[in-house]
Amino acid sequence: MAAKALQSLHLTTWIGSDSMFPAPSSSMGLCTRLENKKKVNLLKCNLVRTVKPVVGYRSAGVNVSCTPQNSPASVLESGTFTTEEDLALKKKSEEIEPCLSGRCIYLVGMMGSGKTTIGQILSEVLGYSFFDSDKLIERSVGGTAVADIFKLHGEAFFRDNETEVLHKLSSMRRLVISTGGGAVVRPINWKYMHKGISVFIDVPLDALAQRLTAVGTASRPLLHHKSGDAYTQTLKKLSKLWEDRSEAYSNAHVRVSLERIATKLGHGDVCCINPTQIAIEALIQIEGYLKK
Question: What is Dmax (Cα atoms) for the chain?
Answer without folding.
Answer: 56
